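The instructor's notes for this session suggest beginning with a concrete chain rather than abstract definitions. Hand out the sequence below and ask the class to guess, before any prediction is shown, which regions might be ordered.
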Amino acid sequence: MERCSRAVQAKDARFDGWFYVAVVTTGIYCRPSCPAVTPRPENMRFFPSAAAAQQAGFRACKRCRPDASPGSPEWNHRADVVARAMRLIADGVVDREGVPGLAARLGYSIRQIERQLNAELGAGPLALARAQRAQTARLLIETTALPMGDVAFAAGFASIRAFNDTVREVFALTPTQLRERAARGQTPAASGALSLRLPFRAPLCPDNLFGHLAATAVPGVEEWRDGAYRRTLRLPNGHGVVALRPFPDHVACTLTLTDLRDLTIAISRCRRLLDLDADPVAVDDLLRADAVLAPLVDKAAGRRVPHTVDPAEFAVRAVIGQQVSTAAARTHAARLVAAHGEPITDPDGGGLTHLFPSPDALAEADPSALAFPRARRSTLAALTAALAAGEIDLDVGSDWDEARARLAAVPGIGPWTVETIAMRALGDPDAFVPTDLGVRLAAARLGLPTTPAALIRRAARWRPWRAYAVQYLWATNDHAINRLPV
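After discussion, reveal the predicted structure:
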């Protein structure tokens, strides 16, 4: 409590999303960095989630918009059931499958899930999903000219009444008042096209983040154009195209969706792709304590781990990229896309032509038609069959240890591939690739051990952030993944 109070008094933006502060005299809740006059300590109440503050009867501050703060980094670096549940809720599982579906994915009873979420977050899965729907509704109300009925449906509400009641309760304004308030000097987007800002905790180094995505982009699925990384998205209700452009205090996101019900999920996946909910101060402070890494951290603090919008896609690409150059991996992946991907039309007339093939489509493909060595074809066929059958779960709510074990059981998938998938697709912040050529070259330059076993022992001091240490090690190499395209 005392630490939270100090953060509020300091208006420390690093704690935005970690917790929320409510003021009993005004009935509102804020992010810790709210610029309003700091309330007296005896009038502050602290909540671990926006949903908990809403359940306690507080409404969102109109000035600091606490519901739009970066997400808690806890849910990305933890592997326990609460973190897995939060990742699944952010990915829209409760809206699509209900609480029973959430519980089934996690392998727990509904009662156990509700008890654990309430104990840690002060709210159950329905309340957490409701808070997320409220934020989606506000985005649609403020940035589009959609009729309110369409907004309610797209945000995931079961009825217009529930939509109206929730908006009034959370924001202390009717949907119409929210739109009128936002409309001053703004032009609403056309249906299906949205422009929004993705916040993050500073610092953020865009070089390796966007440089990596651009350098490894698969033609037809991804591209770097006009200072933005663009790609296609396979979503539950349709598909989309996103453009992500880095700025000093936010990432500009332009989304075109075939079905607006996918908005929340698309935003969540874009944030996950760019690792925007990370706590760079905590990561860099630990890595900076190592004298070898300290100069690298000081030179370009805030490096993120580039993740993915589709874990199954990345697993396939990791196998394709085994023991070949980045350029060769892109070429092989592009051929796979052209042969088995789902064609789409780029709304901006760019070079995006396909969705990456689904595991089902790849499982039905003839392996002999793929221009890979026979062993690689067998590995790819085994992997896609396992993904299509649900034998390997790489979803956001998956068990990281189990996923590693099942990947390792696929013939032809070794430790490098397992850990690369764990780092980029599963999002494990402690994934480590000691056999990676770039890591070993960096280790040699820095005077670190170069044999895998010795490097693993030396890297123990970097835990639980070894995946971020890899980003700093890669930064010592002169490679396109380490710089923004021009």
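Then share the key points. The radius of gyration is 23 Å. The mean pLDDT is 93.
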